[in-house]
């Protein structure tokens, strides 16, 4: 299974093939992780961050596979690692039946339109392959780039949900396009 866009190739995340790029390109990139409060603990080593990422991301990536949801590794057509983008089970406090769209891109890939290009391919795959009626995305930090992306992908604000920590999680939705 593979998705191809004008500039990108997306393949399903495979831990054996993709973990090293995921860690070096995303987990150890302080720009990418600046909103991940778990990664800001004083004294965290790179090995600590990799273990934490394995504990947090690998189970989340795997949970949705039973439903046909895919986390895609995004590479340029020349096979340079760009990041990941995909559909996963929505995590608490949001939860629910609708899959959650998400993406993370290496800093060197920011500002080139890769997130929009990959996001469109991921969502189109959800419409075509899984016949999804709706996809959500959750913004839980002041990440303006994420907000700009969800606007470009056609998401609209749906609700604010508060976690146990009283932090707001902004939920955005996009519905499957109708015929015509």
Structure, described:
The chain is of the alpha+beta class and about 180 residues long. The chain has one domain (about 5-175): 3-Layer(aba) Sandwich (Aminopeptidase), CATH 3.40.630.30. Helix content is about 30%, strand content about 25%. It has helices at about 15-25, 45-65, 115-130, 145-150; strands spanning about 5, 10, 70-75, 80-90, 100-105, 135-140, 155-160, 170-175. The strands form 2 sheets. The protein has a 5-stranded antiparallel β-sheet, with helices on both faces. A 3-stranded antiparallel β-sheet has the order 6-8-7.
Helix content: 25-40%
Percent of residues in beta strands: 25-35%
- The CATH class name reads Alpha Beta
| Largest β-sheet summary | 5 strands, antiparallel
Number of separate helices: 4
> How do the helices and strands follow one another from N- to C-terminus?
EEHHEEEHEHEE
Question: Could you name the ranges where pLDDT drops below 50 across 5 or more consecutive residues?
Answer: none
């Amino acid at each position: 299974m593979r998705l191809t866009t004008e500039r990108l190739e997306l393949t399903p995340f495979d831990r054996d093939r993709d973990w090293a790029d995921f860690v070096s390109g995303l987990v150890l990139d302080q720009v990418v992780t600046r909103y991940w409060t778990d990664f800001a603990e004083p004294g965290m080593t790179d090995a600590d961050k990799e273990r934490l990422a394995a504990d947090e991301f690998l189970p989340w990536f795997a949970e949705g596979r039973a439903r046909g949801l895919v986390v895609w590794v995004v590479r340029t057509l020349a096979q340079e690692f760009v990041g990941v983008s995909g559909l996963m089970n929505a995590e608490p406090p949001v939860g629910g039946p609708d899959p959650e769209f998400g993406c993370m891109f290496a800093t060197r890939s920011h500002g080139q339109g890769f997130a929009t290009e990959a996001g469109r391919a991921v969502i189109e795959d959800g419409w075509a392959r899984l016949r999804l009626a709706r996809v959500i995305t959750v913004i839980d930090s002041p990440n303006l780039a994420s907000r700009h992306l969800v606007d470009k992908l056609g998401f609209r604000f749906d609700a604010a949900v508060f976690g146990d920590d009283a932090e707001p999680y902004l939920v955005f939705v996009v519905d499957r396009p109708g015929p015509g």
